[in-house]
Specification:
Layout lengths: L1 E8 L3 H10 L6 E7 L6 E5 L2 E5 L2 E10 L4 H12 L9 E7 L17
Antiparallel strand pairs: 1-5, 1-6, 2-5, 3-4
Helix pairs in contact: 1-2
């Protein structure tokens, strides 16, 4: 079992969700987060003044899956979250081993619980 954590631009959420739900991957957890990678500082206009924007709004998506679905899910996120051109800030995908999964309602464990 794997836990896939993807952090990507908030404006790409609809594209990523559509790509996943198109392949019937519907079990996911989403959070709105802020952060930055290498692209640290960005400026923008706020009330007519240029201000420093230290953190970028991002989406954190978590998907627990069985091993055989990992590559498909990662590829779907990778292709749908990428922006045109070579601009930094598209995000990251982390794949972690998932030691155990337990469904609270039934007590099922392991791959059946996912």
């Amino acid at each position: 079992m794997k836990l896939i954590i993807a952090i990507f631009k908030a404006e790409k959420l609809d594209e990523v969700r559509e790509a996943l739900t198109g392949k019937e991957i519907t079990r996911m957890t989403l959070s709105r987060v802020s952060g930055h990678g290498r692209a640290r500082h960005r400026t923008g206009l706020f009330r007519g003044r240029e201000v420093d924007i230290p953190l970028m709004p991002k989406i954190r998506m978590e998907i627990a899956c069985n091993d055989e679905f990992k590559d498909e899910i990662v590829n779907l996120i990778l292709h749908s979250a990428r922006t045109e051109g070579d601009s930094p800030g598209d995000g990251k995908i982390f794949v972690l081993p998932l030691e155990e999964c337990i469904r609270i309602r039934t007590g099922e464990t392991g791959e059946e619980a996912i």
